[in-house]
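Question (not urgent): is this output format expected?
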Amino acid sequence: MKFNIILSWSKVMALVITLIAAAIDFKMKLNGTVFMFSLPFVVFLLTGKQFIDWRKNTDEIKANGKK
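Got this back:
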């Protein structure tokens, strides 16, 4: 089984947001509040990028005349 992980700007930013939110919660002793509110933005970054890439690939396939 082969796995291929391609790092994009959105994945790096999602990781940074997650790490900073966890650090703020740990330092300020907020019991996960910042992390909880940052998680939807991380999910949006990752799924939004995947959707855009999927649309780009399907549009390229249609432009080349393949199904």
